[in-house]
């Protein structure tokens, strides 16, 4: 039988009606069974009152809410304050919610929420400083767009020529003043009353912000003077002053505009005579952009040349006889900088053939053509002095020509090798460089780092180098984190430093999942910072700025807690491999001795399964997740707990479709999770549990639409899961 939802107030009203003074003194109204089944929930108190603060001194009970709902200070505000210690904002603290298309930042909602939350005696969880989703990709991509090449010849390209001859009326939108078309076919403006005025002189101009633009007016004026000239579009106008031609004669006045807003695609130009009292005539307006031609730049085709990326996909070697072993990434400290990781190639003694020692580097996505100018650079060393020969191959093992880039000489110290030249006819079509490392009676180990392969090309623009992109985006991350820390004034002490960094597949060279990346964006709002900053520096950079600007804005450094938050850490389909991968990565990030991750957050967007075998597998791996997290010694927090329901046929049920028995099954699972958290996580590592949905999800929601994910029904009457959560928090069996 499906349940009927009644609020606690409704139950009280029914009970009072049964005792009302009437003429029928003995009349008794029996409560429907569907109501009495839920009455036990009224005996429970507020959730946070069930926590033994002595046994669990660091534990925070949290809830996720929308900032606007909380800031109304209505029912959501009251229920939240009564039941929880801490709140997480669903979206308001995310990048896309605060950063506009032009890069400006608005933290007004964050500031208001901080004031209201801390004013109510609660704390705020910072969600989230670094993430790939919900980013302003328009702004970020504009920052790393191709740049115009300088140093070549300049060519002026006309984009629009506006004349007025043959017109009888001003052709543009009138902004309070309408100039005339005179008998000579010129645009004419005068100011007989001495008031301030302006007007369009061109519209519908195609704009590419990477170019410098110039506006040239063929004009004359009856009196000397200055005017303002604007170019761009609403919200992104550039403005400069110019002078009228002297002596009332016709002349060309040219004004240049550079550094235009990166998001401009079309625009217009406006002249502002202001309060000029003379007469202005304009015969034509020419808008042009300036292109540089004949410039050259190095286009890189090997982007995985630094072992910090944990990617050996571009590196191959033969394994015949006593040739090189499989490529591997060295341990921390093997890199050329003494801190990072180098690529390691091991060769045995006395190889049978010269080619048994071949080590291949592939230039991904690039086949080299005759006549192209190439450049090569890498750092190298070996366990003993050796000389290598190089060959051009069309693929690993596909020999084309001897002596491609020369013969690098290895020493036991790090040295840098550089080569450049022109691809010859015999190398046309190559995509792989082969190293014959050496045929010697002794074994030798080789280390490679910071490998760069590129081709010199000509053009008007060039893509930024990987290093340039990294520097630009590092500055953008600093600007973002410093702005958020300023807005929160050092009050928000707990943060998701990085959200959802780990992928759910692939291999990073150590047997763990790599970080999420972008071969094909899953959403137009995805921007994978780690693709530009690097798998290691991505987290270290966010960490550095979080600690720096938290303290600079009044926070106590001893209180700041930075978490790595991710989902599917309780996964049974891969035996918690995602969590094991996250733990591996935390170790990598902390290798520098400066980065410190305080805690791990597990999201736990789970379901209760009617199939017993499935449910037992899920529960087993939830327990294993807690054990693995506890073993790290770091703080442990369940950051986004919610639960759906899957019936025996594998169907996800919607709110209102569950029986009381099914709801109590969900209640039992909530209680199990909380009890296992307290059992398996040491008290000093227990940092709390946050529930992601206070009420069941509406049918039109963007999050688990229609599912029974709440602690309360949508009317804010308690669900059976309320009891399971309270009992779990209190330790009642």
The chain-level mean pLDDT equals 88
Strand order of the largest sheet: 1-2-3-29-30-31-33-34
As a percent range, the share of helical residues equals: 10-25%
CATH superfamily (homologous) name of the largest domain: Glycosidases
Q: Any idea of the CATH topology of the largest domain?
A: TIM Barrel
CATH top level of the largest domain? Answer: Alpha Beta
The count of domains is 4
Structural class: alpha+beta
Tally the helices: 14
Strand content: 25-35%
Q: What does the main sheet amount to?
A: 8 strands, parallel, barrel
The shape is: flat
Total number of beta strands: 34
Low-confidence stretches: 1-29, 318-324
Calculate the terminal CA-CA distance, rounded to whole Å: 27 Å
CATH 2nd-level architecture of the largest domain: Alpha-Beta Barrel
Radius of gyration of CA atoms, rounded to a whole number: 34 Å
